[in-house]
Amino acid sequence: MIRPAPLVEAIEPMTPFIGPEELMRETGRSSLVRLGANESAFGPSPRAVTAMAAELERLAWYGDPESYELREALARKHGCRVEEVLVGAGIDDLMGLAVRAFVAPGAAALTTRGSYPTLNYHVNGYGGRLVYAHYRTDGRLDLDELVTVATRERAALIYLANPDNPSGTFVDRNEMQRFFEAMPHDVVFLLDEAYADFVDESSLLPMHVEDRLIRTRTFSKAYGLAGARIGYAITTERVIGILQKIRLHYGVNRNAQIGALASLSDEPFRRHVVESVAQAREDYYALGRELGLGSIESFTNFVCIDLGDPSRATAVMNALLRDHGVWIRKPGLPPLDRYVRVSAGTPPMREAFAAAFRDVVSAVPSLHA
Amino acid sequence: MIRPAPLVEAIEPMTPFIGPEELMRETGRSSLVRLGANESAFGPSPRAVTAMAAELERLAWYGDPESYELREALARKHGCRVEEVLVGAGIDDLMGLAVRAFVAPGAAALTTRGSYPTLNYHVNGYGGRLVYAHYRTDGRLDLDELVTVATRERAALIYLANPDNPSGTFVDRNEMQRFFEAMPHDVVFLLDEAYADFVDESSLLPMHVEDRLIRTRTFSKAYGLAGARIGYAITTERVIGILQKIRLHYGVNRNAQIGALASLSDEPFRRHVVESVAQAREDYYALGRELGLGSIESFTNFVCIDLGDPSRATAVMNALLRDHGVWIRKPGLPPLDRYVRVSAGTPPMREAFAAAFRDVVSAVPSLHA
Description:
The first copy, chain A, has helices at 6-9, 20-27, 46-55, 68-78, 91-102, 117-125, 143-152, 173-182, 237-244, 254-264, 267-290, 310-324, 347-363; strands at residues 33-34, 85-88, 108-112, 129-133, 157-161, 188-192, 213-218, 231-234, 302-306, 326-327, 339-343. Chain A is an alpha/beta fold. Chain A has two domains: 6-43 and 268-363, Aspartate Aminotransferase, domain 1 (Alpha-Beta Complex); 47-265, 3-Layer(aba) Sandwich (Aspartate Aminotransferase, domain 2), CATH 3.40.640.10. Chain A has a seven-stranded mixed beta sheet with strand order 2-8-7-6-5-3-4, with helices on both faces. Chain A has a two-stranded parallel sheet with strand order 1-10. A two-stranded antiparallel sheet of chain A has the order 9-11. The radius of gyration of chain A is 21 Å and the shape is globular. Chain A starts with 5 loop residues before the first helix and ends in a 6-residue tail after the last helix. Chains A and B meet through helix 1, helix 2, helix 3, helix 5 and helix 9 of A and helix 1, helix 2, helix 3, helix 5 and helix 9 of B.
């Protein structure tokens, strides 16, 4: 009889997300309007597609385990050194490394209750102790409570996504700088900037490196390469040296490196995506207003629309999938659980969503109506 | 001042492999004859390339986190259930999961000294205790010693690659079955079958599932998709349930799943690769004989050629890179460290290697000459 390691045996099974393919299998549908995972509806850059197509024959070669060319380009983009950039198989991968490196079994990792659940998955998986701050009722992060809890619980790591997922809210440069200074200085601040491409770089915490700051970015959102699994972390050479000791050296797909590098050279495409996403957000706000529903102002490629109560939000989400093949998600915990979260689609996807949403919202009454 | 978790702090830095891109940067070469990493010189299946090319635009979508279609095809191929197949980002990824799940800090993991070093990397990384059996002087695995050491050290996991890397030797079905029965039954047997496609399925341990057996396979070798990072494990639903608790659910590239699925349908291509590889091995044996050098009979897509002593083997490997841009590797530890290991190339690559090898071998004298 074999037995798992005690730490692994103790983990409660948890699937961070159910994928749309599973939902298609369950509902017997052969396609969905995919607005549930904040994938880019605008696809990868044509330049990235061309570059990857040209290299498919060479997929028999392992990718460069150092992702050197890509890291050079990223260092240029961010004005840091190549030794301060680490490439991984998406932010989820890098997040796992940061948790494994800095959250010893029993140590506290602090996040906002209801924020990106993959952080929780990793903390659970490495035997850390999850501690929480709460969203403010307006869907914004509570930076004061984060500092209070970090101090009280002697947190080893604080996680925060900015812009935030699933709320879409944003903490600007000055507020973020005050927060970073106010937190205990022996804490690793894991700053997930997956959605940073949708705001101005000048409104973000200025790019600099220090040991207690690990910021992560991705090619999954504005660059439209979610399926490629590629992202990066920026921090000090010392911290990267620690992550180097545990990372999967051959974990990143060769073509993902090539696509990411080509994407970086296509700034007009990224701007086009950012503008298209901004228009999609406006359309979703307007749709909400038309139906008497508020939205949280978003700084990302998705919008949270307020259905008034959690059960109605769940019923709307389920009816959209079941009756219309429109796949969205919703936050699972208060105070955000009365919202549905819709990713920015192309104009035809938005029309399909709007028609289905009007239909479903009118059919699912509010508890408070 | 931030501090890593004690277990991570204690890890000695170790890079399992230096990639050819790094060697190109160091030597200032813009290309190499790549015969060092047992990549397939015969590329991916044209069917896989076509399938992946058609889906590049949809790389904005995350891949199915369950890899369901691929697992279905693999279950059909191997006559097992879909719940008994787990897809990961290459065997390295799956190996990390198996070690994390079954080798608690301080527990013993047994391998053959000088065999595939990524296993050692993971055991190190999760705080396990590496214990070793030794290769026999003929380059074969010592199954008796593996059983003795596993019993004495109360190993939690035994790792073995069959066919073996870097020796290329093979343990056939009957011998493997005796070994599997002789080892303590509370040990997880991690059977790495990365090179299984180069031998007849009928000569391998029969396909069956039980908790104490995790076998891994890959699309990196015969299927020519090393850069895609995709492999799979076959074991019981119970063991997969344990690995599910810790795996990176969105870790596999979407296009890798598509390429792997298409590859499975192209059995003529795989046979063509296997035959081409067999011819390459014959060419390498013949080249060795011409130069008075023995080779280990190989059941893989590489051959170990005997240079007589470790320093000569190292000098030959280095001269091939430096003077000819021919990249090979060599085993690092006795008794295999007097060999160089050459991957099966295309006929032009073999010619380039042969010309360079003749030149270098005659220029680097044997210590015993």
